[in-house]
Amino acid sequence: MSIFTKSLKTFKSDILGEEKEFKINLAIQANLKSDHGLTVKDLSAEDVLDEDVAKFVHATLKANGMETSLEDIMDNVAPYELFEFMTSYNMVNNENFTLATNRLKDKSEQKKTQEKVTPIKK
After folding, report:
1. Listed residue (34, 33, 12, 31) closest to 23, CA to CA
2. Which of 111, 93, 112, 91 is nearest to 101 (CA)?
3. 26-65, pLDDT tens digit by residue?
4. Alpha-helical segments (H) within 1-122
5. Whole-number Å distance between alpha carbons of 88 and 12
6. What is the Cα Rg of the chain in Å?
7. Are 88 and 97 in contact (CB under 8 A)?
8. What are phi and psi of 21, to 5 degrees?
């Protein structure tokens, strides 16, 4: 039983196939650093890689008591879903809707559009 009586900020995402609520806690940052050598600041770059966002998802799931591997995430989650997950986190965690979040939203929309385009075979 915890000695803490306060509640943490949470955000919702359907990245696992159904909507779940995730706590925002320091374990996310600790997992991101210890498991993947990244900081949250590394993820605010305009040219953030899909794999780095997948590492953030992995760290968040682990911090919320869910066991999975980075490979499992990369195999089962579309790139736009990764960015939607991180955008949901940023919208709750950052009182001000930051420029980084806006960039992630734009990138999410781009990824979603790219995945819907099917090349024509000749």
Report:
1. 12
2. 91
3. 999 999 999 999 998 888 877 789 999 999 999 999 999 9
4. 26-36, 50-63, 70-76, 79-93, 99-116
5. 7
6. 15
7. no
8. -105, 135
Angle between helices 79-93 and 99-116 (to 10 degrees): 160
Residue 22: name the closest of 77, 78, 74, 92 by CA. Answer: 92
**In this structure, what DSSP letter does residue 11 have?**
E
pTM of the predicted model as reported, rounded to 2 decimal places: 0.76
Count Cα atoms within 13 angstroms, Cβ side, for 64: 19
Identify the DSSP state of 40.
G
Between CA 107 and CA 110 the distance in angstroms is: 5
Structure tokens at 41: 């600041």
| Spatial distance between the Cα atoms of 28 and 118, rounded to a whole number of angstroms | 36
Tokens of 112: 């979603």
Q: How far apart are CA 3 and CA 55, in angstroms?
A: 30
